[in-house]
Amino acid sequence: MNELLGLWWEWFPDLLQGFFLSLQVTGVCLLLGIPLGLVFALGVSAPNKAVRLIFLFVVELGRGAPALILLQYFYYGLPSAGITFSSFTAAALALAYCTGAYTSEIIRGGLEAVASGQREAADVIGLNKLDALRFIIVPQALRIAIPSLLGFSIIMFQASSLCFTIALPELVSRASAIGSNTFQYMPVLALAGIMYAVVCIPATIIVTSLEKKLGASSQT
Amino acid sequence: MFDVFKAMLDGVPWTIAVTLLSFTIGCLLGFPICWLRMSPFRVISFATASLVLIIRSIPPIVWLFFVFFGAGGGLLNLSPIAAAVTGLGIITAAQMSEVYRGALSAVPVGQYEAAHVLNLNARQRFVDIILPQMLRIVVPSAATYAISLLKDSAVASTIGVTDISAVAYQVTQQTFKGIEVYTTAALLYLLLSVPVALFSRWLGATLNTRISK
């Protein structure tokens, strides 16, 4: 046991750097991806049929393709068209697209859940369409969508582990590098697993209780 | 373009195999986990709930490495596909146990009570009364999960399973036609998810008509 703790103590600083990079990628992809999801959600419910179909295709492609394929598309695919990204940029862009595609469905659910009286009221008090969206509809829709968006953020933090495949030195990359250098795969992977769990377990518990609370209050 | 597509097809059986096998394991193993999770003994149900939460809180790629390099390296000698199926199977089992639990609580209490009153034994109560109603509720979420598992199966490529993702990487390195290759790969995954969605709709409809008869 002491031996294990000694190893962990030795590896921890290195893994911690990877852990922060994982958090960073997740943060950037959510910051880019959730606004993108709002754009996709509005695009999919646009009045113009051509616009709607284009957005529907973009969203379905983002949801239908594995995140791993999207990552490799940006990192290994686009260079053949002369577009080259660093692994961090490729990771952030690919995961942002993935986030946008998935969250657009969550946000669309939120938009549809806003009571139709709100739309009518906004119309009656003379707000134009954009202002009605900006001040009345979107804030309420986002509030409804928050628990699901948080739940999705946990999934994206886990998905950031896929950046291992495009040589981003995040948590899994560092763990696997230590593993192949020392052949101590089990202990290092266990430590990496604990570091993911330390974030995801409390986050999952908070999101679940938030969902219950909001679900209960909307029923009364 | 056509030879790229033909080369990519080599990965399809492996993707299907990993997905189907781990889904089957997960669906079966989900039952005992669900049973333990709903145990009247709080210690057992709490321990199971914690285990499920831990399994779901660690990314699939870490589980796969753990099984392949960790357990497979020292203790057992696992082939990449066996390790991938084991790792993804365990994750699926944890997810499915939650799906089952939700479905069980959606079966009306009256059904349990009526089965008791009719003096059916425990096996009959579960197999003849509860299970058919539960399955009807399980099918849509199980299908959604199967499709996400199909996409998650791409991580198997990181431990050497020659699935669609692995072939995409190899072909890109050989031909430098990255855009075509990865577009094809994305479309292949999309195509594979269509039959799952159709099958689930058919199964759902069939189960519903049988219940309403």
**Secondary-structure element order of chain B, N to C:** HHHHHHHHH
Query: What overall form of chain B do the CA principal axes indicate?
Result: flat
CATH first level of chain B: which class?
Mainly Alpha
Content-based structural category of chain B? mainly alpha
Oligomerization state of this entry?
A: heterodimer
CATH architecture tag of chain A: Orthogonal Bundle
CATH topology-level fold name of chain A? MetI-like fold
Helix content of chain A: over 70%
Overall pLDDT score of chain A: 91
Task: Work out the strand percent of chain A.
Answer: under 5%
Give Rg of chain B in angstroms.
20 Å
The average pLDDT score of chain B comes to: 90
> What is the level 1 CATH name of chain A?
Mainly Alpha
Main sheet of chain A? none
Our count of helices of chain A gives 8
Chain pair with largest interface: A-B, 40 and 40 residues
Major beta-sheet overview of chain B: none
Topology diagram in text:
The complex is a heterodimer of chains A (220) and B (213).
Chain A: H1 2-44, H2 49-64, H3 67-77, H4 87-113, H5 116-124, H6 129-159, H7 171-182, H8 185-219
Helix pairs in contact in A: 1-2, 1-4, 1-6, 1-7, 1-8, 2-4, 3-4, 4-6, 5-6, 6-8, 7-8
Chain B: H1 2-9, H2 12-37, H3 42-57, H4 60-74, H5 80-106, H6 109-117, H7 122-152, H8 164-175, H9 178-212
Helix pairs in contact in B: 1-8, 2-3, 2-5, 3-5, 4-5, 5-7, 6-7, 7-9, 8-9
Descriptive report:
The complex is a heterodimer of chains A (220) and B (213). With 220 residues, chain A is mostly helical. Chain A has one domain: MetI-like (MetI-like fold, Orthogonal Bundle). Helix content of chain A is 84%, strand content 0%. The longest helix of chain A has 43 residues. The termini of chain A are far apart. Chain B is mainly α. Chain B has one domain: MetI-like (MetI-like fold, Orthogonal Bundle), CATH 1.10.3720.10. Helices cover 84% and strands 0% of the residues of chain B. Chain B is built from nine helices and no strands. In chain B, helix 3 crosses helix 5. Chain B is flat, with a radius of gyration of 20 Å. The mean pLDDT of chain B is 90. Chains A and B meet through helix 2, helix 3, helix 7 and helix 8 of A and helix 3, helix 4, helix 8 and helix 9 of B.
